Amino acid sequence: MVSNLFGGSAKQSQYIVIVGCGRLGSLLAGDLSSQGHSIVVIEQNESCLGNLSSEFSGFSVVGDAAELATLRQAKVDKADCLLAVTSEDNINLMVAQIARTVFEIPIVLARVFDPDREAIYQELEIDTISPTQLSADLFLQRLGERFENQSQQSAK
Amino acid sequence: MVSNLFGGSAKQSQYIVIVGCGRLGSLLAGDLSSQGHSIVVIEQNESCLGNLSSEFSGFSVVGDAAELATLRQAKVDKADCLLAVTSEDNINLMVAQIARTVFEIPIVLARVFDPDREAIYQELEIDTISPTQLSADLFLQRLGERFENQSQQSAK
Fold first, then answer.
1. Is residue B138 part of a domain?
2. Are A95 and A84 in contact (CB under 8 A)?
């Protein structure tokens, strides 16, 4: 569990909509829920809601988040923030765009697997996180550390 | 491109086998290749080799990395390091295990999507990187920053 990151002067409880309930979505839903935020998870595949941990105390909506009716059902118009974290870049982009332009949600973050696509999101003022780039950076860092350790050991 | 992480006292050129040529594998292959390392990429689906960038100057082997014959063709017995980065946790675990036990490769790193599985790898002395956990941590951090900024702006 991650410690409460919204301390300080930030509003205590936020209304957060999470689109996608795979590993990442369910992890975020559990953490943010345990921090006292109000969470609604939107997921197309009902069986994925089983990924939600016991920490999760929010609501879930089964449906296609690219449809306005589903977003309205999740009361997206009242959300402080939306996280688009399905496993499909196209869906994340579309939902994030609707959240910004139609519902004017102030904070929209999206997962994007293809690092080459991040530029499109930036133009739309959508904040992106790329697991691919993050992983690559960490692989290279770890590898550097291992090689360094190894050469120090063989020098002894 | 990532700067050369293997400076200092580490051996200059390493022989690195990368299993999986999706987005992450091809990104790593390009970066490590441009740093002057000898890279062999193993990929089952020949069309994925098209992901390799122009920076890549290594070799590729088309085949199933869970088969010893494929690993031998990639001269895994001579490798300083193996990175198992396919999109399948099971394949990454199997290949990483063979690399450690059969070929005794000193440095083995594996991508694992399911954070709950990391414990299995640790028992086998395989270093793991979980894109899911990495992304969750960064999403929570960014979200905290955004909420903090927002509350500072509304306080003005």
1. no
2. yes
Chain B environment of A16 (Cβ under 8 Å): 143
- Predicted confidence at residue B62, as pLDDT, reads 97
Question: CB-CB: which of A5, A134, A139 is closest to B83?
Answer: A139
Can you read off the two tokens belonging to residue B130? 């979980």
* Domain annotation covers residue B149: no
Structural domain count of chain A:
1
Which CATH number is A66's domain given? 3.40.50.720
Confidence at residue A9, expressed as pLDDT on a 0 to 100 scale: 47
Q: Is residue A44 part of a domain?
A: yes
Q: Which of B24, B108, B116 to mutate to test the interface with A (most CBs of A within 10 A)?
A: B24
How many other CB atoms are found less than 10 A from the CB of residue B50? Answer: 9
Domain carrying residue B33 = 11-130
Assess if residue B135 is contained within a domain.
no
Distance of CA A121 to the CA centre of its chain: 14
Question: Shortest Cα distance from A90 to chain B (angstroms)?
Answer: 16
Question: Which of B3, B17, B140 should be substituted to probe chain A, the one whose Cβ sees the most A Cβ atoms within 10 Å?
Answer: B140
Q: What is the pLDDT of residue A5?
A: 54
Which tokens is A82 given?
């939306």
Name which of B83, B113, B150 is nearest A23 (Cβ-Cβ).
B113
Name the residue with higher pLDDT: A105 or A8: A105
> Cβ–Cβ contacts within 10 Å for residue B140, how many?
21
User: For chain B, which ranges sit under pLDDT 70?
Assistant: 1-11
